[in-house]
Amino acid sequence: EDNLPAARAVKAAGGKVLPTPAPARTLSAEPIALIDIIIVNAIEAEYLAGVPVVDTLDGALEAARLLAARFPAAIVTAGGEGAAYSSRDGEARATAGIAGKVASTHGAGDEIVGSFAAALARGEPAEGATAPANAAVTRSSHDAEPRGRVPPDRA
User: Fold this and answer.
1) Taking the mean position of all CA atoms in its chain, how far away is CA 103?
2) Angle between helices 57-67 and 42-49 (to 10 degrees)
3) 8, 68, 70, 77: most buried, per Cβ within 10 A?
4) Cα–Cα nearest to 95, from 131, 140, 41
5) Nearest alpha-carbon partner for 18 in 107, 129, 98, 106
6) What's the CA gap between 38 and 20, in Å, rounded?
7) C-alpha span between 76 and 82 (Å, rounded)
């Protein structure tokens, strides 16, 4: 609710509102109406979609489909399992995680949201932007010495 003025300004400027409602909480009608794509992790998906446990890619896809009934589109991340996208118009896809040794998951949520937003800004369709975002978060979390950001040409 505190971000409503920013969300209104983004919409007025023709941008997309991509919130990550952490911690998960019930949203009222006005913020829901402003959201283009909601991006949540497994715990937030469990709360917002009302599903018991989202710890697999199939579970993430099911949660994304349930959230897409309330929002125009949803992305649900499932840790190392990957991420799932679903839209209200029925488009759905799951992107498996990339295997490797995880050095740190610190900032992984910020990385996937930023990389997804960058892919949208480059003109990629939302349903296809989860793959480069998933790859970017894998690079940043598998790096033994995180750099703090993934350069735009690698996002």
Assistant:
1) 21
2) 40
3) 77
4) 131
5) 129
6) 6
7) 9
How many residues comprise the chain?
155
Sheet of strand 73-77: strand arrangement: 38-40, 73-77, 82-87, 92-96
Residue 23's Cβ-count burial label (10 Å; 0-12, 13-18, 19+) is: exposed
Instruction: Provide the token pair at 101.
Output: 């040794």
Dump the DSSP string for 21-70. Answer: -SS-----HHHHHH-S-EEE-HHHHHHHHT-S---SHHHHHHHHHHHTTT
**44 burial class (0-12, 13-18, 19+ CB within 10 angstroms)?**
buried
Helix (H, G, I), strand (E, B) or coil at 60: helix
For 96-151, the pLDDT digits (tens) are 877 767 666 666 777 778 888 888 888 888 877 777 677 666 666 666 554 555 55
Q: Hey, what are 89's tokens?
A: 């118009």
The model's pLDDT over 48-105, given as tens digits with 9 standing for 90+, comes to 998 887 789 899 999 999 999 999 999 998 877 888 999 999 999 888 877 767 666 6
Q: Which residue reads 């998933």 in tokens?
A: 134
pLDDT digits (tens, 9 = 90+) for 95-105: 887 776 766 66
